[in-house]
Design goal:
This protein has helices at 13-24, 50-64; strands spanning 2-8, 29-35, 40-45, 69-71. It has 72 residues and is α+β, with helices and mostly antiparallel strands. Strand 2 and strand 3 (40-45) form a beta hairpin.
Length: 72
Amino acid sequence: MRKVFELEDLDCANCAAKIEEAISHLDGVKYASVSFMTQRMVLVIEDDKFDQVLESVKKTIKKIEPDCSIKC
């Protein structure tokens, strides 16, 4: 399943790159792209694991950029 999410309070391009790298290595994530310029994240996640993987994505973002949140 491919979904596009808006990110709020993503502060810098470096943080976006770190988030993208970390999320790309999570189990169940087939593709991840985080853009600082557009404040958007594109995820391709296995359909049957979507909710579970999305929670891991949210936790990973909070570890790297505590003020950043996903607007669903």
